[in-house]
Amino acid sequence: MAYLSPGVYVEEVPSAIKPIAGVGTSTAGFVGLVPDSLTVPVKSVTNERVGAGDGTKTSFNLPYPILTDAGSFAVRVNGTAADATVSADGGSGNGVVKLTNAPPDKANITGDFVQAAQVTPVPAGQVVLCTTFSDFVRAFGDFSLDPGQRQLAHAVYGFFDNGGTRCFVSREKGTATIASSSLHNFEAIDEIAIVAAPGLTDAATRDAIVTHCKIRTGDRFAILDVAEAVETSGSLDLELLDPSNPASLLPSSTDFAAAYFPWISVFDPPTKLLQPAGDGTVEVAPSGHVAGIYARVDTTRGVHKAPANEPVMGALALRYRISKAQQDGLNPQGVNVIRNLNGAITVWGARTIGGDANADLKYVSTRRLLLYLKKSIDQGTQWVVFEPNDPSLWARITRNVTAFLTNVWRAGALFGTTPQEAFFVKCDAETNPPELRDVGQIVTEIGVAIVRPAEFVIFRISQWAGPTQ
After folding, report:
1. Can you give the three-state secondary structure of 178-240, one letter per residue?
2. How far apart are CA 129 and CA 134, in angstroms?
3. Rounded to the nearest 5°, which phi and psi values hold at 325?
4. Is there a cis peptide before residue 262, judged by omega within 30 degrees of 0?
5. Between these two residues, 38 and 100, which has the higher pLDDT value?
6. How far is CA 44 from the centre of its chain?
7. Structure confidence at residue 90 (pLDDT)
8. pLDDT score for 170
9. Could you tell me the pLDDT band of residue 285, with boundaries at 50, 70 and 90?
10. Closest to 350 in 3D by CA, of 317, 387, 417, 303
11. What residue segments make up the domains of the chain, in order of their start?
């Protein structure tokens, strides 16, 4: 109570429950397999003089490390093309050029090379907050030819490119899977709401992420990738995405995660540097880009809007082009397909893994809205701790939660023409009997009617002969 004058007081009403900040519903946590040392392309060096010879020397060290592969460089001796091999290690971290059929009168050796830099990422397990891609580069290094770094870097870049604003990134220096221990440091960061391990599709990693979201924290959602190649004898085989198939490549069914298929093609700077004549594209897992779409939709529409029918920024092509008929078989199984629709690469699915088998929680937006409500109400009612557990407290809780859910209903997240149709809040003597009060518990029952996405649009068309005369 706050006393205004002797004998006069007013009840102090705690702050109303506030929804989690816009970034709070879509802050991502990314884990990747990144080695302790990376070789990162820096720039292309043209016509670099690498040495002078007397007609007998056939090996010259470059003053910097280089990256190269067959066909990506040209060596000339006094302006004449010469065959050579190029190694990224000249014995002291420098590149080395070895001529194999140089003319005997060579003097100046020139060539086109890709200069590289050695980068040491932050220690494994350390979590870094990134609000721009530059933050990621400073901590983990730029795009690289290393497979793990390539997947992680493109995931973070795609996250920001698609509307993400904040993510926490950590690396594991293993070679195959993400151990559950590598997710431990994410647990203390309340802000994280989405978790992904871009490009890692092994069962151990998937199970560790789902356990982290569902059991360890209970308030997060996982975005998982389907395997890069879904093929039998070199051809697309959608039977491998049937959960009833013993050889299925899908993650285990869960309403705390969603899976996206297929992988997408993006522009990769190192690939273009090494192969200037090519288009510079590589295939990467879509989970990072999809996490950015989650963030974009959360900000522009709200967490209740399904993160689908949205373009994938940065995606140039798809590994597989899926038809509507093919998707009709995948959708009930919880495979969220990324399709090329009228020239736009678009996420065209919004189901949790398992699809129809998850009943009321088969939609991504339904599960995420429940997580959002739970986390918002939990954080917004911490003031009740150590308060006297009596009818006055029950009434204040009911009043605050009702006010919050009314705002959620007005935003269009709950179904009903009135708040009474959309939700109920019950905190009274019935939900808080003496045996619960004696052990320090206060129980509030909340029910909500959630708006489901309009997943199918159906038109009924019939032939009409016109009005009768």
Report:
1. CCHHHHHHHCCCCCCCEEECCCCCCHHHHHHHHHHHHHHHCCCEEEEECCCCCEECCEECHHH
2. 11
3. -65, -40
4. yes
5. 38
6. 31
7. 41
8. 94
9. very high
10. 303
11. 38-119, 156-366, 381-469
**pTM strictly above 0.85:** yes
Residue 353 in contact with residue 252, Cβ under 8 Å?
Answer: yes
Residue 457 CA, chain-centre distance (Å), reads 28
Residues in the chain: 469
Q: Are 86 and 3 in contact (CB under 8 A)?
A: no
Confidence grade of residue 228 (pLDDT, cut at 50, 70, 90): very high
Residue 408 to residue 377: CA distance in whole angstroms: 12
Q: Which two tokens stand for residue 282?
A: 């590589």
Q: How far is CA 183 from CA 36, 189, 271, 352, 394, in A?
A: 18, 11, 31, 22, 37
Question: Is the Cβ–Cβ distance between 183 and 216 less than 8 Å?
Answer: yes
Tokens for 430?
């019935």
Residue 14 pLDDT exceeds 60 = no
Q: How many whole angstroms separate alpha carbon 394 and alpha carbon 429?
A: 9
* pLDDT at position 1: 38
Task: Give the separation between CA 206 and CA 251, rounded to whole angstroms.
Answer: 7
Give the pair of three-digit tokens for residue 29. Answer: 């946590």
Number of CB atoms found within 10 A of residue 324's CB:
10
Q: pLDDT tens across 306-360, in order?
A: 999 999 999 999 999 999 999 999 999 999 999 999 889 999 999 999 988 998 8
pLDDT computed for residue 23 by the predictor: 43
Largest CA distance in the chain: 108
CA-to-CA distance for 393 and 289, rounded, in angstroms? 45
Q: In the structure encoding, which two tokens stand for residue 357, read together?
A: 């088998």
With tokens 């309403």, the residue in question is 255
pLDDT tens figures, 165-201: 999 999 988 666 676 667 889 999 989 999 999 999 9
The per-residue pLDDT for range 43-91, each reduced to its tens digit, is 877 766 655 555 556 677 777 777 765 455 667 766 677 776 666 554 4
Residue 233: CB atoms within 10 A of its CB come to 5
